[in-house]
C-alpha cells in the first residue's frame, strides 16, 4: 500500500501539469493566453529580425512596415489551413462552422501562415523597394523563435498533445479534455492518463533550429534566400516525427496525417531550393535593395539627375536636327531601364513559394 502511494506520488510529481486557466478578464475584456503567446512571438520575431536586417544593410523601419503586411496575411492563411486540414470540429457531425472564425480558441496551421504571410511580406518588400529573399533570410531565425513561443498557447489550451506515455515528462490534462478527446477520436483514455507534450518537443526543436540557422549564416554567409530554405528544411524535419506522435483529429492521406505529407513534400522542396540557389549564387547578395530601386520603392535620385543631364545635352546637340523631340523622349527614359529589367530576375525573392 505504501509503495503504491509513493509510486503514484512520484508519477504525479514527474508529470508536467497543464494550466488550469487559459483566459482572464479585465472587466468585460477577455485576455487569452493563446493570443498573448502569439503576440509575444511576433514581438520577439520583429526584434530579432530587425537586428539581423540592419546587420545586412537594411533600414530598421523596414521591418515594422513589412510586418504590418505579413502578419494579417499570415493569420488568415494559418486559420484557413487549420480549418482545411482539421475540418471535423467545424464541418463534421456536430460541428459548428461559425467556430472556424474563433481564432482565439487556437488553431493556426504554420503552412498557411507562411504561405499567405509570404504574400503579405512580398507586398511590403515591393513597397519598400527591398528584396524579399534578403528579408526572408533575416526573418527565418526569429520566425522559429516566434513559433516556439506560440506553442505555449497550445499548453494553456491543453491541445496538440501526443499519444499516452509513461515518461517522467508526460503531460497531465484535465478530465474534461480527456472526455472530449475520447468523444472525438473514439478512444477510451481514463482520467490521469499522461500524454507526450508535443508542443514542448516542437518548442525545443524550434529553438535549437534557430540557433543552428544563426550559426550557419555567420559561418557560411548564406544569401539569396538560403537561410529561409534552411529554416523550412529544418522545421519540416522536426515536424514529421513530432506530428507522428499526435492523436488529435486530422485529415489522413494514405494512412498518414495530412501535415506529415505536407512536411515531407515541402521539406524536400526546400532542400532542393537550398542546393540549387547555392550553386547559382554561392555568395551573399551585395545589398538588400531591389536592383534599380531605393527606399520606398523609388528610382535612385542619381538616375533622375543623369537623365536630366542627358536630356539637356541631347536637346543642344539636336538643335540642328529636326528629330530632337524624338531623341529627348528616348534619352529621358521613355524606354525601359536596364536596372528595371533586372528587377524581374530570379533573385526577387526565395519565398515566392512559402
Q: Element order, helices and strands?
A: HEEEHHHHHEHEHHEEHHHH
Straight-line distance between termini = 58 Å
Total strands = 7
Low-confidence stretches: 1-12, 300-354
Query: Which structural class is indicated by helix and strand composition?
Result: mainly alpha
Indicate the overall shape. Answer: globular
User: Largest beta sheet, briefly?
Assistant: 3 strands, mixed
Give, in spatial order, the strands making up the sheet with the most strands. 1-4-5
**Strand fraction:** 5-15%
Radius of gyration: 26 Å
Helix tally equals 13
Arithmetic mean of pLDDT: 82
Residue share in helix: 55-70%
Summary of the model, kept short:
It contains 13 helices and seven strands. The relative contact order is 0.12.
Structural key phrases:
354 residues; two-stranded antiparallel sheet; 5% strand; globular; 13 helices
Layout of helices and strands, plus pairs?
Blueprint: H1 2-14, E1 16-17, E2 23-26, E3 29-32, H2 33-55, H3 60-85, H4 88-91, H5 110-128, H6 132-157, E4 171-172, H7 175-185, E5 194-195, H8 198-220, H9 226-245, E6 252-253, E7 256-257, H10 258-280, H11 301-317, H12 324-334, H13 338-342
Parallel strand pairs: 1-4
Antiparallel strand pairs: 2-3, 4-5, 6-7
Helix pairs in contact: 2-3, 2-6, 3-5, 6-8, 6-9, 8-9, 9-10, 11-12
Please give a structural write-up.
With 354 residues, this protein is mainly alpha-helical. The chain has 13 helices and 7 strands. The chain is globular and about 65 Å long. It has helices at residues 2-14, 33-55, 60-85, 88-91, 110-128, 132-157, 175-185, 198-220, 226-245, 258-280, 301-317, 324-334, 338-342, and strands at 16-17, 23-26, 29-32, 171-172, 194-195, 252-253, 256-257. Residues 1-12 and 300-354 have low confidence and may be disordered. Helix 3 runs antiparallel to helix 5 (110-128), helix 6 (132-157) packs parallel to helix 9 (226-245) and helix 11 packs antiparallel against helix 12. It has a 3-stranded mixed sheet with strand order 1-4-5, with helices on one face. It has a two-stranded antiparallel ribbon with strand order 2-3.
Amino acid at each position: 500500500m505504501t509503495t503504491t502511494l509513493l509510486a503514484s506520488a512520484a508519477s504525479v510529481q514527474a508529470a508536467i501539469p497543464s494550466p488550469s486557466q487559459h483566459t482572464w478578464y479585465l472587466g468585460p475584456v477577455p485576455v487569452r493566453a493563446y493570443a498573448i503567446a502569439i503576440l509575444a512571438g511576433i514581438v520577439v520575431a520583429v526584434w530579432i529580425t530587425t537586428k539581423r536586417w540592419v546587420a545586412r544593410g537594411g533600414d530598421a523601419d523596414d521591418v515594422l512596415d513589412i510586418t504590418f503586411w505579413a502578419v494579417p496575411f499570415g493569420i488568415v492563411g494559418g486559420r484557413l489551413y487549420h480549418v482545411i486540414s482539421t475540418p471535423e470540429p467545424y464541418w463534421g457531425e456536430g460541428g459548428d462552422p461559425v467556430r472556424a472564425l474563433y481564432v482565439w480558441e487556437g488553431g493556426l496551421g504554420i503552412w498557411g501562415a507562411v504561405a499567405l504571410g509570404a504574400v503579405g511580406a512580398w507586398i511590403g518588400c515591393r513597397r519598400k523597394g527591398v528584396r524579399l529573399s534578403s528579408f526572408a533570410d533575416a526573418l527565418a531565425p526569429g520566425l522559429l523563435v516566434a513559433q516556439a513561443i506560440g506553442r505555449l498557447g497550445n499548453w494553456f489550451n491543453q491541445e496538440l498533445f501526443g499519444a499516452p506515455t509513461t515518461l517522467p515528462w508526460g503531460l497531465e490534462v484535465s478530465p474534461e479534455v480527456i472526455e472530449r478527446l475520447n468523444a472525438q477520436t473514439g478512444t477510451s483514455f481514463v482520467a490521469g492518463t499522461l500524454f507526450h507534450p508535443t508542443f514542448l518537443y516542437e518548442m525545443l526543436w524550434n529553438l535549437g533550429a534557430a540557433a543552428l540557422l544563426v550559426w550557419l549564416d555567420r559561418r557560411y554567409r548564406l544569401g539569396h534566400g538560403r537561410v529561409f530554405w534552411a529554416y523550412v528544411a529544418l522545421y519540416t524535419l522536426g515536424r514529421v516525427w513530432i506530428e507522428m506522435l499526435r492523436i488529435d483529429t486530422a485529415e489522413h492521406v494514405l494512412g498518414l496525417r495530412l501535415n506529415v505529407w505536407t512536411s515531407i513534400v515541402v521539406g524536400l522542396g526546400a532542400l532542393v531550393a537550398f542546393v540549387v540557389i547555392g550553386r547559382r549564387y554561392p555568395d551573399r547578395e551585395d545589398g538588400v535593395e531591389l536592383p534599380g530601386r531605393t527606399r520606398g520603392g523609388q528610382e535612385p535620385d542619381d538616375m533622375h539627375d543623369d537623365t536630366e543631364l542627358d536630356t539637356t545635352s541631347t536637346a543642344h546637340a539636336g538643335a540642328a536636327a529636326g528629330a530632337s523631340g524624338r531623341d529627348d523622349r528616348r534619352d529621358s527614359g521613355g524606354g525601359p531601364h536596364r536596372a528595371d529589367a533586372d528587377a524581374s530576375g530570379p533573385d526577387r525573392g526565395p519565398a515566392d513559394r512559402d
